[in-house]
Amino acid sequence: VKADAGLGSLYRDYTVNRWPSTAGTHLGMNLDFLNQFLLATWGAGLLDMEMDADALGLDVSDLDFLLPGLTELNITTEALLPPVVVPDGVDAMLDLQVGDLLLTLYNGEALAGNEMIQVYVSAFIEMDLDANADGTSLNPMLGDMELYFDVVIPEANTVGAADTEALLELLVPLLLPTLTDALTEIPIPDIQGFGLTGVTVESIGTFDGVVSIGGDLTAR
After folding, report:
1. How confident is the model at residue 158 (pLDDT cuts 50, 70, 90)?
2. Sign of CA dihedral 62, 65, 69, 74
3. Is 75 exposed, middle or buried (0-12, 13-18, 19+ CB in 10 A)?
C-alpha cells in the first residue's frame, strides 16, 4: 500500500447530453469514476510488482546476446504516479496513460547491487473495454502504444543507454499486459436480481467521457 495517496484522481466532470437508443437498458460509467478506480488500484500497490523471466514467458538464454552475463532475470516495477484514462476518439475508446513507472532489471535477486537496467517508463496506450461472455464485467484490451524512456542505469546519454532503450522497446510491450491484469476486470452490477445480456460498450457524452454499457435487462 502506498504511504502517500497523492492529490487524488484526474477529474474532468464529463456529462451525458444524450443517451443512445441502441438497447433497452443503458448504464453509464463516467471516466472520473474509472480514474478513481485506477487511483485506488495504484494506492493499494497493485502496480508494484516483482516477476521473473518465466512469468513473462522469456528464456534467459535468449536474452544473453542483449544482456551479456545474464544468468537469472528478475524484474521489479514501482508506479510512482497513478495511471489515468482519457478519451482517445481516434483509433480506440480510451487512452491509458502511465507515467513514471520505475522499471528495474536485476541479474539475480532483486537486491541493490544486482541492477543491470533501471529506467523510468512513460506510456500512452490505446485501450478498449469489452464485456465478458456472460455480461458481468468489463475487461480492458490494449492496442498500440507509444513508449518513452529515461534511463538511469546504464548512465544516461551513453551508447549503453541507447542500446537499453532498444531492448526495452521489445520488453515493455510484454510487461504492460501483466500490469493491466493487475487492474482487474470491472464488475457490471446486477440490479435487484436483474442483469444485462447482449452487452454493448460505447463512448457517449461530452468529449466521449462516459462509457455506456447497453443491453437487455433480464433476470439472473
Report:
1. low
2. negative
3. buried
The domain that holds 87 is classified in CATH as 3.15.20.10
Whole-number CA gyration radius for the chain: 20
Q: Is the pTM of this model over 0.85?
A: no
Q: Number of structural domains, the chain?
A: 1
Q: Which of 129, 143, 142 is nearest to 214 (CA)?
A: 129
pLDDT in tens, 48-92: 989 888 887 888 887 777 777 888 989 999 999 999 999 987 889
- Do the domain assignments include residue 210? no
64 occurs within a structural domain: yes
The pairing of strands 137-153 and 186-187 is: antiparallel
